[in-house]
Amino acid sequence: MPYEVQGVIARGKGQPVSTETVLVPDPGPGEAVVNVKACGVCHTDLHYREGGINDDFPFLLGHEAAGVVEAVGEGVKDLAPGDYVILNWRAVCGACRACLRGRPWYCFATHNAAQKMTLADGTELSPALGIGAFAEKTLVAAGQCTKVSADAPPEVAGLLGCGVMAGLGAALNTGNVSRGDTVAVIGCGGVGDAAILGASLAGAAKIIAVDVDDRKLAWARDFGATDKVNSAQADPVEVIRDLTGGFGADVVIEAVGRPETYRQAFYARDLAGTVVLVGVPTPEMTLELPLLDVFGRGGALKSSWYGDCLPSRDFPMLIDLFLRGRLPLERFVSEKIALDQVEDAFARMHRGEVLRSVVVL
Questions:
Q1: Which CDD domains does the protein's record reference (predicted)?
Q2: How far is CA 254 from CA 24, 171, 183, 260, 285, in A?
């Protein structure tokens, strides 16, 4: 018998979301049903609602979540009812060429649940990032469940399911920030601030926060930024160079996802420095750079998918750091809201008033 729950649905491009009845099937082979305890309101969910990802409406939104396993399907060995988990959207296959080369964080065959959740009338739903966690229960592939310590509150633990992990990983995994490095982060929302926190955790000597909003720059200070630049008032490339002895930063993390901010990142790095793109562009955006500059400046231009994380490795380690007081994940939680308040949370997020609204169920 399917589970009957309430979930947040986006029915069409730009339409306000609604809370509706969702039918969640019993888990099939390799699947799990999870009781969602908390789910962050991520900008990616707004992208889905606006048709910026694809047009497979209706969507069951929500993906940045933690919860407790309700049931597992046939063949699931390392997961059991009662396990406390963070949901991830890159369940690795273990068999593709990336996995077989020992680089599972690049897995080319990540997978989701095979069955579909539906509306009460049978309409199939597209779960955001294969998760769909703005719901009391959701169906996922068992590999999308990462067990962590239940001592971490779900409203905190769930943040590692997307935005915070993306930022931390952009600094720690993709950017390989190390002790003594200079780092600049362009865009100081949730992902950018997580990148700042990651750079601080890695021992960066100087961390320069760049944004057009003084309120966000103040938040960035709380996560470890040593310097700040309001790019609406000054040229960030010039200021970053001034703050780094005229050279530019060793690592520049672009957490906006726009051509103009990417160009700033490109020219704000030191020779042989690294640019990390973790901000998500939209399909119509294009980038033009002089090829001679790409050649002449050397270094690395990288994209960071999910912070190049391996959930089974990174989630438990980061939760352990949180529980030991070394990773202040709780600072990302601006407010706790109910399931029927997601639309209002989207508006506050769009206005830059919050780092993370978190739905608590």
A1: Zn_ADH_class_III
A2: 38, 11, 11, 10, 15
In a domain? residue 311 = no
**Pair 57, 192 in one domain:** no
pTM: 0.95
pLDDT single digits (tens) 9-52: 999 998 999 999 999 999 999 999 999 999 999 999 998 999 98
CA angle 256, 258, 261 (to 5 degrees): 75
121-136 pLDDT, tens digit each: 999 999 999 999 999 9
Instruction: Show the domain range for 36.
Output: 3-161+328-360
Q: Is 330 helix (H, G, I), strand (E, B) or coil?
A: helix
Give 180: exposed, middle or buried? Use CB within 10 Å, 0-12, 13-18, 19+.
Answer: exposed
Rounded CA-CA distance 300/314 in Å is 24
Structure tokens at 217: 């720059």
Q: How many domains does the chain have?
A: 2
On whether both 122 and 215 belong to a single domain, the answer is no
Q: How is the beta sheet containing 227-230 ordered, strand by strand?
A: 227-230, 206-211, 182-186, 249-254, 269-277, 300-303
In this structure, what CATH number is given to the domain that contains residue 17? 3.90.180.10
DSSP states of 230-283 as a string? Answer: ETTTS-HHHHHHHHTTTS-EEEEEE-S--HHHHHHHHHTEEEEEEEEE-SPPPT
